[in-house]
Structures are given as C-alpha cells and as structure tokens.
Protein 1
Amino acid sequence: MKKITAILAAVMMLFALAACTATKEAGKEPKDEGKGGEKEKVEKVLYLNNGQEPTSFDPPIGFDAVSWNSLNNLMEGLTRLDESHQPKAATAKNWDVSDDGKVYTFHIRDDAKWSNGDDVTADDFVFAWKRLLDPNTGSPAAFLGYFIEGAEAYNNNEGSADDVKVKAVDKKTFEVTLISPQAYFLSVISNPCFFPINEKVAKENPQWFAEASSFVANGPFKLAEWNHDSDFTMVKNDKYWDAKNVKLDKVHWAMVSDTNTEYQMFTTGELDTSDVPGELADKLFKEGNVKVEDQAGQYFYRFNVTMKPFQNENIRKAFALAVDQKQMVELVTKNQEKPAYGFVSYGFKDPAGNDFRKQNGDLIKTDVAKAKELLKKGMEEEGYATLPEVTLTYSTLDTHKKIAEALQQMFKENLGVDVKLANMESSVFAADQKALKFQLSRSSFLADYADPINFLENFITGSPMNRTGWSNAEFDQLIKDAKLEKDEKKRYEMMYKAEKILLDAAPIIPIHFYNQTYLQSKEVTGIVRHPVGYLELKWADKK
Amino acid sequence: MNTYFIKRFVAMIITLWLIVTGTFFLMHWVPGSPFNEERTTNAAIQKNLESYYQLDKPLLVQYGNYLKALVQFDLGPSIKKSSQTVNDMLGRGFPVSFELGLYTLLLAIVSGITLGVFAALRHNGLIDYLAMSIAVLGISVPNFVMATLLIQQLAVNIPIFPVATWSSPMHMVLPILALATGPMAIIARLTRTSMLEVLTQDYIRTAKAKGLSPVKIVFKHALRNALLPVVTVLGSLAASILTGTFVIEKIFAIPGMGKYFVDSINNRDYPVIMGTTVFYSAILILMLFLVDLAYGILDPRIKLHKKEAK
C-alpha cells in the first residue's frame, strides 16, 4: 500500500515538475542575447559564428580558421594585411632592410601595449618566434618560420635555440636574419603564428591562452568572455595603439556547426553573417544575396605516377584534358568558383603588374580530341591493348562524391574509359594518399602564405605535400633558385617556367580554385576576407 | 541484500573493464592517426607529438598506463584540443546534455504514459486512434526532421522561440520537444500494449467487481504492472538521452557532450574516444542497475536475489 502511494506521489511529482518547467519557460523573458544590439542602441555588437570551439588560442598551435579567424583580431604581429591584402605596418611602426635583403630590423611602436598595460617589446617577439620553432612546442605551423636562419635545424632537433637568428637589439628593436631574401616575408609575418607573446605572462601561467580571464591581447579586441564549446565575446581593446579606428564595441561569436541552423539564425537576425547552405545555394545565388571573394587555393586530383597506367605522361594528360572544369563549376559545384587550368590561383601580381594566373595562361585546358589522341599514343607507348583498370578515390563527403561522379562521367564520355569510384573515411584516406596507395585521388590545397612559390613548392621531390611520386630535377632547381632570388622579375620568370613544367608533366588535374561565399547583413560593413589570411574585423562597422 | 549489491558492483566493474579493453584495442586497430591531416607536419614534429601523447610506446604499455590513470579518474588530455583535458570536456558537456536529457525524459515519460493509458482505456475508440496516430508519427519522424520543422515553424515563420544555442529557458523548448517525440511515442505504445494486457487480467475484474472506482483500478492496480516493460526500455533510453545526442545538439548548437562521440572518432582523438565510451558505459550500466531495482519495487514477485527468496 505504501509503495503504491509512493509511486502515485512520484507520478504526481513528475507532473508537477513538468508543469514547473513549463511555467518557468513561459514566464521568463528570453535574454536579449540573440537579437543584434536592440537593447542598447549605442553599443555596436557584431554577431558572428565560429562554427565550433577554437582549437587553441595559443598562436603557434591553433593552425586553422576556427582558431585564427578570431585570434587575428585579438592579437597583432609586426605587420597586418590591409583592405587590399598588402602587409602594412602594425605593431612595428617601420623597418629597415639590409642591402642583401636578408636582415630586417623592425622598430616596434612606443604605444604598442598589451591589454594588461605591459609594453609589447622586442623580447616578446624573440620569445614567441623561438617558441614557434621549438620542437617541443609541436607547432604544425613551424615550417612557416623556416626562412629564418637556423630555424629549420632547431625545429628538426638538429640545432639550438641560440642559433635561430632573431634578436632583440633593444627593448623596441627586433632584428631577424633570413636564409635568403624573401619578397613575401612581410606578408608571411602577418600570420598569427608570428604574433608576439607576453613573455612575463606566459612564464607565470603557461596556459594563459586557455581562458578569457588570463588572456592578454595586443590586437584591436580583447577576450572578455569564453564559455567553452558554447560562445565567446571580444570587446574593443582600449590599449590598442590604433583603437581610434576600431568601430565595433563587441563581437559575439557563437559556435553553431550546422550550416542550416546558422542560416536560420541569420534570417532571424541572431547572426550578422552566415555561410551558404548547400541546398539553398542555387536560390540564394539567384536572389543575388551571396557575396563571393577569392580564396587562394585549389581543388584538384592527384595522379600516382608510380602506378599503372599513370606512369605514362600521355595517359595522364589524356585524363587531364578530358575534364571539363567549366562544366564542373557551372553544373556540379554551382558555387561560382573559377575553373582551374593551372595550379597557382588568381591574385598574385608580378613586378610588371600582371596577374600570375593570367600571365601564365591556361596550361591544361579541356580538349577532348587531343585527349583521345594522347590516350591512344600513351597506350601504344606502353603496349596496352586495354587500359589497366583505374580506380578514382575520394574522402567520404557529399561534395567530393558529386565531383568524383562527374569525373567518372567525363572520362566515360570523352575517353571511353570506365573508371571505378571508391571512397574512404578522411583520416584513412589522408594516410593512404601520403603512402601513394591510390591511382587517382582527390586533393585540395589552401595557401599558407601569399606567394605563388607556396603553391609550386608542394611538388618538389620528396615534399610531404607532393603525394604523386612525380619528380623533376629542373623543376626542383627552379624552385630552389626562386627561393634565393632577390630580383623579383627573375624570380617570377622562374616560377612561370616551373608551373609550365609541372602542368606539362601533368601529375595533377586542376579542377577549380576555391572561393569564399557568404551572406552578410546589410547593416554590416568593413569586414575584410583575405584570399590568404584570416578574418579581419579591425575596420568592421555596424549601423 | 548486501551481498547482492557487492556482487552486482563487482559485475559492473568487470563489465566496464571489458568495455574499456575492447574499445582500447579496437580503436587502435582502426587505421588512421590523430595527426593525419590534409596538411603534413614534418617528421620531427610528428615524433614530438607522438611521444608527448605516449603514442610511440608499445600498445600494451599504453593500455597499462591508461588503466592506471583511469583508476584515478584521469581520462587524459585531448589530442585535438591540446589545452583541454577529457575530464574538462566531459565536465562541461555532461551537465548540459543531462539538463536537456532530463527535461526530455520527464516530458516523454509523462506524456507517453498519459497517452498510452488513455489509449488503452478507450481501446479502439477515437482517443485510442488519435493517441496512436501521434505515437506512430513520433516514431516514424526522425528527430532531426522534427527539429528542422520546429525551427522553421516556431522560430522563423512565427518567431516565438530563438533558432538555436543554449542560453535561456526559451532556447530549451524546441530541442526538448524535438528530442522528446521519439521516446514519448515508444513509451506510449508500450504502455498501451501492456495496459491492454493487464486490464484483461482476473484481478482487475475482481477489483471492478469489488466496486472500486475506475481511477483506483487504473492507477493502483493496472498501471503499476503495466509499467514493467516501460521501465525496461527506460534504462537504455535514459542513458543515451542523458549523455547527449549528436544530431539534436548539432542542429541546435547545444554545448553538450553528444558531439564528442562522433568528432573524436573522426579525429582519432584517442583519449576522447576512450573518455566518452567509458563515461557512457558507466552511465548505461548504472541505469540498468536502477532498472533492476525498479523491477523489485514495481513487482515484488521479482526477487533481486534468488537465494534470499527461499
């Protein structure tokens, strides 16, 4: 009897609880967090989405967009990319370059301060850059610093920190010696892995970057709040040397990983920008709401030149020429990408002011007749009566699948070759591709720094990014020479030639260049999206 | 009774240990590594990282170390989010998932049982058909479809609720509704079926003949026995709902622990895979234990310990 009463009581409590929650939910007004700045008209709050928890705000560790898009606005290196993507004086007010182009002396601004009031000093840079290169840091971005003398040896456990040629001449003078003159050096060091680190803070608390309360910033914004896995908020940094040009008061970053949800939040005003959800892309493009910016990088396919039948150059070329890139972007990806007929993307100007891509032209362009001819020729050269079976492999994802199927169709129609498709979970795929286990496989490349050489150096012999088995002594030499060349005109000539050699041997099939597509509230202006680099909010504004 | 608890506890520990062992070796057999990304880190850096996470040691040594740490409730550092430990991640994610899960369960149990009881009492009547139509809908519409539908209707078309995130009670309504429909339908159908069975039993007829009020018959005599199958499913249902659901948490951007189950495997983030598995298993085993206890309370004929029953 007692038990029955107990159960009854429990059921009643459940009802009561449910009722309680219901009234609690109904009674409380929603917090006004979602609605863009309605509460206080004076305060300018930008609502962005970071997609997920940043990997790390430790500058050399979080080598990805989810960490560096925000970190780029919390901190600042010696230089900062401007609206036209050129490096401009930032924490450094100016610099001197030695005659041989190898020694840079940076003069750090007197008013460059950390958010805790400390001066940003040359020692902070020495500390940060050596830490980037320290093998024990385990930074995936460390290779970006290899153009500093002594850097590569130190990072590979073959040298010491003392041999890395970065030094603090005095409190506000920072000197760095390069292995060779590098035209793009000033642009590379705008990258977050070259941000200074407040040595004093870092030594007291090695995990200073893990929480908002301990984070010290030196950029346009500082970190005010960080609810891990949920959201974080940056506020204007009054200690920033150029604070008068920072217009926003606050930036709120949600972490919404679902693109459809992100889009819905954008339509209800809970977010100021959004990615374009795949299913709605067509409609949104037609309505003219989507903005498109270039992104330096390419979607392409790799041949494995150590496996049949792609050891033969003519057969590789036949496959490459059978691909219709224009159709691919217009009918398959439908995201307004530019079709790729070369490897280096648009946006790099040579000394004469010509765009690299336009100047070097279409190096491998759809030509079905020639493709058929080359396939025949290649098969004769190898003595094939029938072509060995070809399997095309991609990492499992809808968008990759669409492109792979389109390629299969194109090879069938244009060459009469039946290609098998296989897909694999991405982590396994990456390992197998590096081990040269595929004949033909999907690839992508996003530039790490703004220079054509960053694209081309992938394919030097033995580069971990090569992954084709392709090797060419002349190409290797050209890349090596270009890295040492001080004369920009000559350097570009070398790179033009190298790209021609690469695509003439066709260890790859270019598909399309990447772009950045997004939706943005009409009230928001001044957000800069660089083709190479991270989101820039310094000049952003909101009505 | 005490020996029963001790035996159960030992069995629970052994079960957990088997799961830990199985998962540990299976996980390392899966090809791929946490450092396999599109971008390549150089060999020296890779080596440093591997030695930092002890991945360069023999598997058995790694296993031993893991067990040692596990006994001290240390689940290790995350490989992907290097400044966080798995304890941090679960400590943050679980309360959120638990909150969402708890409200969901309450809603599902209360509404499911109510629907089921009414359907059984009005067997083959309008209410029965109505309730079971709702239940069939609830079972057949997957929760992510429900979620999208709710967002579209109640957040975008008629902006009553916010679209997503987890910052106020208003934000909780849609995900709870979306998540509760499935379990509610299951509970409703189970309740109805077993109520129908129980209602035909002799003792119910006796109760009716005694002239007891229908309310008393239903709540005192019928429902109690009818709840057994419901309680059986509740154990595993509760474990999975309380530890977070990947899809719903993703759609509503809820900072629970659901995403770790999936992301950790994609990233081969070994400590997080282990952490989530151990945690989930522990909760599941605990829930099954509670279910067994509940059996004894609901139906005294079910004895927890056979020897004692003599």
Protein 2
Amino acid sequence: MSVSVQSAAFDVAFETAELTKNAHGIGAVASFIGLVRDMHEADGTSSNVTAMTLEHYPGMTEQALEEIVTEAQQRWKLIAVRVIHRYGRLEPGEAIVLVIVASAHRGEAFAACEFIMDFLKTRAPFWKKEESPEGGRWVAARDEDESATARWMDRR
Amino acid sequence: MTLKLLYFAHLREALGTGGEDLAVPAHVTDVRTLRAHLAARGGTWKILEESQNLRTAVNQQMAGQDSLIAAGDEVAFFPPVTGG
C-alpha cells in the first residue's frame, strides 16, 4: 500500500507500471481518476468555475487514507494499492485524485477501487474552495456521498 | 490543561485563525464542553456551539460530542469534508 498527499501532478501510466512491476500474480488493475470540473454543483448548469483550491489536514489526511486502504485490504484480496490525492490550486481538467487497485481478478479490483473512493469522499479531511467570476465559495458536502459510503456498511 | 486547537476551511476563514494553543478550565473534559467554552467568546465563535454541521477530530481521529479530551490533545474543528 502506498498513499501520497501532494501538490504535484501525477502520471497515471508511471504509477500503474510501478504498482504492477514484478508482481506477476496481478491479473486485474482498476483505477479511478478524479478531475476538476468547471461546473458549480449547486446550479449544475453554469460553467463558471475557473479554479479550485484544496485544503487538507496534514497528518490526519495521510492517516485517514491509510485506514481506508487497510479496510479495503481486509475486505478483498488485493495485491497492491496506490492512492494519490493533490492539494493546492487546481484548474478545470486537472487531476485531483488517483486510486489504483491491483488484484488477481477484476471483481476485487473494481469493488475495492469504488470502496476506497466512497470512503475518501466522506472520511478524508479535504475541503474544496471554488473560484468563479463571482468570487470564492466553499463546496458543500453532498448527501449522495454519505449514502454512497453508507451502502458499504451493511455488506461486509 | 493546554490543548492544541486547529480550524479548517470555511471555519478557519470565519474565525480568522488556523489554530491556537489554549489553556482551558477544569470543566472542559470533552468535545461538547470545549465547544461551549469556545462559543462563550461570543461573536463568530458562537458557530462552534450553534452549527449542526461541524466535525471534530481528536488527535487526528474523527470524534463525537462525548469524546474525552486530555492535556496535550490536538483538537480540530472543520466542516464536512469535500475531497476526491
């Protein structure tokens, strides 16, 4: 397992190659890449987000991400996991988050990748502030994200 | 006892500070009493008691209102998280 919280951009091909290097028991790799959108969530129509700044809680963030990955490893048989989450100022189209899960078969990789993202959304201490021509605004938490996390609770 | 307090995101901006080291009186023993103690400063600080939507971490672990607090603890207050 490897978790990074960084301001620098990441290279998906490089990270995937590193994760699977010399691990020939891996038959499946599932990855998720989250990008900055130019659309404000509340109205859903106006494309006026010019950038966003991600703030986080150094120390707790890394710990929270490691706990989420550990939980995933207890639920599924995983061979390797890589999580990178960026902070700082990012513009639309830039990648914010990367989750790569490698396992013997695809079922575990798909499920664990989704599980890690669902918990990351509601448990990892990051906050987004959008910039728009009207000024800055903090992004509100979405109820859908809480429900996405909750649905894993009763299927251990 | 002295605590290390941290404030993040919207809360940090509203309070005008990212954190402080604070000596608290003996009746502050858990998250609930700490929030009340801070809210007693008045003004913007009242949101620490009034906000229904505030999260707390004690020593970097998510905590509830009844979580106990001891000398030297790091207590962070923040809005619901929005990463990913």
